[in-house]
């Protein structure tokens, strides 16, 4: 039966191929969208790991997450250096990364921090940051570049760069009196780390006039302890690593009710999930569109099968004459539809992998979507099974028509 | 020798029609007989053939084929009987154009376990028997491999005959199989068909309106004389 269906399809190969092509393209779209969705979600969740709490000024959790992890948007409030010193002394805090945001280098966000950032920040599956070249900053005039920044701006270790005030692409106030020198470039991570410029807190204090080098201080003769002088007055956020994870909940409550100034503490994993939920509508719209495209592909097949029935009445009569029952004719039509769909799905999967393998980097460079040729997920198997089932159900209609024709025509066919 | 086809007060009308299309008091064709059935178009020929072939069901007791009352068999039992015991040759377009001549012939075994079993009893295979039949019918080995649509009409009809004959069914129904052939080819076709039917002791019901075929057949039935219905039809 399958052999007969194949031979018959091969006889009508032009329309069969077009049908298979339409189905395969719709499958590429459906699986592609699904894959982009899944992998974007993964990429998203991989932006930060190992950090137990993000502390910032009193604000919404999404806003704090976006500005501290993705460097998107600006926080209206800041948290004081005093609060930061208090945070460090909380019980159970293993490490802390201060962050001061708000400046930029030709549109790329500047993150003022300490070398603790390079030591303690983790992304993906608790992977540490690696240096592609150079090393972390050693003094307040050094800067470290994310991989993407270095590539886009054509900067390398040893090159100079100027930080601008504000986060826009062009700024009216360049801090060109205090240029920075690139001390290192980070390896690519696929996270927002790639598109940021890291400078020491003291460097930021210097360009903002909040920090004066010890040897330039007017009261240098007075023996102020240099360590008492903060490099900047305020911070945007602090990442905290704890000695044990279960502490996070208690510490979060403690920080949220901190008396010194209004603060917000969030757990990054939960905040990421919450934020992703807000994108669900968009996700569902994408999925709905690709499902509709698949439906169009299958309807195309239905049309082709129905149209072919008229010209195949002779074929059916011959099959009837050698003893094929109407049930066999019915089955023949169903197997044809399933074969067409099966090949369509198989070719679609092949095409998808071809596109990912050949065009993956081009896609990432142009629209910033990372696609990897990972194995087919369970979810994708389900989708493909659903397509086959839908095709089987749709083919009941032409199969039923063929069944009726076979009963009515019998062996006599009016040509 | 038993009876192959027995009609007994067969009366058949299409649903909705007031007068019957066929009304035949009696007809009997013995096994191994070669019968020419003649009748102008509209005399109910096609309907009679599709009744005998089991496509349409008569009322119980009116039509027996190979001792089976077709009126009492259901659709799939009639399909099985046709597959196993009846070879059918159309006027034209007998073959699936996308299969080779050989595959077209072997198609008749696809739905017919009894044909396959008889081939086994004759200690031969489907493939061997197909090649032999096509050889007998004068189709060269290279033509046997060709897709059916590349064959001439005469060759196609011979392939159709081979398909009907493969696995030694009891009855061959040939519905004007020679009307698309010229005289020389027609006579040769009839001769070959006769020879094969004789060898397998197959009953042949040959339909034609061609008067010149009379001399080949020991028995000729005029449907217009047999059919007492006045309704007419196709």
Automatic annotation (TrEMBL), chain A:
<feature type="domain" description="MacB-like periplasmic core">
    <location>
        <begin position="17"/>
        <end position="205"/>
    </location>
</feature>
<keyword id="KW-0472">Membrane</keyword>
<keyword id="KW-1133">Transmembrane helix</keyword>
<feature type="transmembrane region" description="Helical">
    <location>
        <begin position="285"/>
        <end position="309"/>
    </location>
</feature>
<feature type="domain" description="ABC3 transporter permease C-terminal">
    <location>
        <begin position="288"/>
        <end position="404"/>
    </location>
</feature>
<feature type="transmembrane region" description="Helical">
    <location>
        <begin position="15"/>
        <end position="33"/>
    </location>
</feature>
<dbReference type="Pfam" id="PF02687">
    <property type="entry name" value="FtsX"/>
</dbReference>
<dbReference type="InterPro" id="IPR051125">
    <property type="entry name" value="ABC-4/HrtB_transporter"/>
</dbReference>
<protein>
    <submittedName>
        <fullName>ABC transporter permease</fullName>
    </submittedName>
</protein>
<dbReference type="GO" id="GO:0005886">
    <property type="term" value="C:plasma membrane"/>
</dbReference>
<keyword id="KW-1003">Cell membrane</keyword>
<keyword id="KW-0812">Transmembrane</keyword>
<dbReference type="InterPro" id="IPR025857">
    <property type="entry name" value="MacB_PCD"/>
</dbReference>
<dbReference type="InterPro" id="IPR003838">
    <property type="entry name" value="ABC3_permease_C"/>
</dbReference>
<dbReference type="Pfam" id="PF12704">
    <property type="entry name" value="MacB_PCD"/>
</dbReference>
<feature type="transmembrane region" description="Helical">
    <location>
        <begin position="381"/>
        <end position="400"/>
    </location>
</feature>
<feature type="transmembrane region" description="Helical">
    <location>
        <begin position="329"/>
        <end position="360"/>
    </location>
</feature>
Automatic annotation (TrEMBL), chain B:
<dbReference type="InterPro" id="IPR017911">
    <property type="entry name" value="MacB-like_ATP-bd"/>
</dbReference>
<keyword id="KW-0547">Nucleotide-binding</keyword>
<dbReference type="GO" id="GO:0005524">
    <property type="term" value="F:ATP binding"/>
</dbReference>
<dbReference type="InterPro" id="IPR015854">
    <property type="entry name" value="ABC_transpr_LolD-like"/>
</dbReference>
<dbReference type="Pfam" id="PF00005">
    <property type="entry name" value="ABC_tran"/>
</dbReference>
<feature type="domain" description="ABC transporter">
    <location>
        <begin position="5"/>
        <end position="234"/>
    </location>
</feature>
<dbReference type="InterPro" id="IPR027417">
    <property type="entry name" value="P-loop_NTPase"/>
</dbReference>
<dbReference type="GO" id="GO:0005886">
    <property type="term" value="C:plasma membrane"/>
</dbReference>
<keyword id="KW-0067">ATP-binding</keyword>
<dbReference type="InterPro" id="IPR003593">
    <property type="entry name" value="AAA+_ATPase"/>
</dbReference>
<dbReference type="InterPro" id="IPR003439">
    <property type="entry name" value="ABC_transporter-like_ATP-bd"/>
</dbReference>
<protein>
    <submittedName>
        <fullName>Methionine ABC transporter ATP-binding protein</fullName>
    </submittedName>
</protein>
<dbReference type="GO" id="GO:0022857">
    <property type="term" value="F:transmembrane transporter activity"/>
</dbReference>
<keyword id="KW-0813">Transport</keyword>
<dbReference type="GO" id="GO:0016887">
    <property type="term" value="F:ATP hydrolysis activity"/>
</dbReference>
């Amino acid at each position: 039966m399958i052999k007969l269906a194949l031979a018959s399809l091969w006889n009508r190969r032009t329309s069969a191929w077009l049908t298979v092509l339409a189905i395969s393209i719709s499958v590429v779209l459906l699986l592609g969208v699904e894959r982009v969705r899944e992998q974007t979600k993964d990429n998203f969740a991989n932006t930060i790991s190992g950090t137990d709490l993000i502390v910032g000024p009193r604000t919404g959790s999404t806003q704090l997450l976006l500005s501290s992890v993705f460097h998107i948007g600006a926080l209206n409030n800041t948290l004081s250096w005093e609060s930061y010193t208090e945070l460090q002394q909380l019980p159970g805090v293993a490490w802390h990364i201060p962050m001061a945001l708000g400046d930029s280098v030709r549109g790329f966000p500047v993150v003022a921090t300490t070398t603790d950032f390079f030591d303690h920040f983790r992304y993906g599956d608790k992977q540490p940051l690696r240096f592609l070249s150079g090393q972390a900053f050693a003094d307040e005039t050094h800067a470290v570049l994310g991989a993407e920044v270095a590539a886009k701006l054509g900067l390398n270790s040893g090159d100079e760069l100027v930080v601008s005030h504000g986060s826009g692409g062009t700024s009216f106030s360049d801090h060109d009196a205090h240029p920075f020198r690139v001390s290192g470039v980070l390896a690519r991570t696929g996270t927002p780390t790639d598109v940021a410029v890291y400078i020491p807190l003291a460097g930021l204090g210097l360009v903002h006039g909040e920090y004066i080098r010890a040897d330039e201080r007017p009261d240098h003769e007075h023996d102020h302890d240099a360590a008492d002088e903060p490099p900047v007055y305020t911070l945007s956020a602090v990442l905290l690593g704890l000695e044990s994870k279960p502490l996070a909940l208690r510490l979060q409550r403690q920080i949220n009710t901190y008396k010194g100034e209004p603060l917000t503490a969030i757990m990054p994993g939960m905040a990421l999930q919450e934020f992703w939920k807000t994108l669900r509508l968009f996700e569902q719209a994408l999925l709905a569109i690709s499902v509709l495209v698949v439906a169009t592909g299958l309807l195309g097949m239905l049309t082709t099968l129905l149209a072919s029935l008229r010209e195949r009445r002779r074929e059916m009569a011959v099959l009837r004459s050698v003893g094929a029952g109407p049930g066999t004719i019915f089955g023949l039509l169903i197997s044809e539809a399933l074969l067409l769909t099966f090949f369509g799905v198989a070719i679609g999967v092949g095409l998808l992998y071809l596109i990912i393998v050949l065009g993956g980097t081009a896609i990432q460079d142009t629209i910033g979507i990372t696609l990897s040729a990972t194995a087919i997920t369970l979810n994708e198997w389900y989708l493909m099974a659903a397509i086959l089932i839908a095709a089987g159900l749709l083919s009941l209609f032409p199969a039923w028509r063929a069944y009726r024709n076979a009963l009515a025509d019998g062996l006599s066919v009016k040509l | 020798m038993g009876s192959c086809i027995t009609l007994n007060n067969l009366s058949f009308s299409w649903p909705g029609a007031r007068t019957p299309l066929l009304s035949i008091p009696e007809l009997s064709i013995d096994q191994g007989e070669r019968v020419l059935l003649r009748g102008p178009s509209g005399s109910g020929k096609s309907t009679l053939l599709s009744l005998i072939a089991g496509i349409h069901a008569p009322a119980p007791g009116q039509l027996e084929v190979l001792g089976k009352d077709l009126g009492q068999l259901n659709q799939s039992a009639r399909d099985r009987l046709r597959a196993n015991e009846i070879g059918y040759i159309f006027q034209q377009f007998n073959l699936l154009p996308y299969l080779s001549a050989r595959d077209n012939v072997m198609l008749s075994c696809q739905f017919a376990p009894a044909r396959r079993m008889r081939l086994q009893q004759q200690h031969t295979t489907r493939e061997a028997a197909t090649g032999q039949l096509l050889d007998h019918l004068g189709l060269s080995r290279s033509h046997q491999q060709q897709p059916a649509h590349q064959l001439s009409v005469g060759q196609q009809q011979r392939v159709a005959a081979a398909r009907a004959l493969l696995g030694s069914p009891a009855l061959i129904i040939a519905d004007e199989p020679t009307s698309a052939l010229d005289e020389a080819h027609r006579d040769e076709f009839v001769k070959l068909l006769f020879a094969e039917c004789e060898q397998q002791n197959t009953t042949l019901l040959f339909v034609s309106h061609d008067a010149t075929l009379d001399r080949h057949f020991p028995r000729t039935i005029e449907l217009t004389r047999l059919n007492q219905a006045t309704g007419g039809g196709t």
